[in-house]
Amino acid sequence: MSVTFPESLLGKRARTIPETLTVPVDFTSGTFTPVVTDSSSNSFTHGTQSGFYVRIGPLVMVNLYVTWTAKTGTTGGDILRLGGFPYDNTADQRTVGTGDFEYTGLGTWPANAAQITVSMLQVQNYVKFIFPTTTGSSTSLFVSQVGTSGSFRGSYIYRTDEA
User: Fold this and answer.
1) Which residues contact 122 (CB under 8 A, 6 or more apart)?
2) What residue numbers bound the domain in which 63 lies?
3) 33-48 pLDDT tens trace
4) Domain total for the chain?
5) pTM of the complete model
């Protein structure tokens, strides 16, 4: 038996794939505990910490929800980090991840917040948030710019070198 894709999907180049097509792939899934910290590794006081991941080969997909009720012990001038991801990012500088996070909470959220991007540095297991400044450069989101309580919910996809 084989599967034939119709011309309506593939145009004039319809292809037949044998039923026994096998692609060896390392697959794993599980849970992890996401954390909100500052760049000095001081942790926020967390409420809910829920994370789920799927890894297929070197590709890691995470989905998380984390809340915090206080920023006690953190430094306002430090960069905000969202971490605890199950695997470190790849060391390959040509590789970038992608994701989307929703933030709720008060604070002095940056004026250019609509353009915030998520960035994961090489061989790290956390993301940071970067946004453009009014002068055309970019800067990180700092602990002082998020509320005393709040939450992040979202997903991120990245590549790992870990076995």
Assistant:
1) 89, 90, 91, 92, 93
2) 24-159
3) 999 999 998 889 999 9
4) 1
5) 0.78
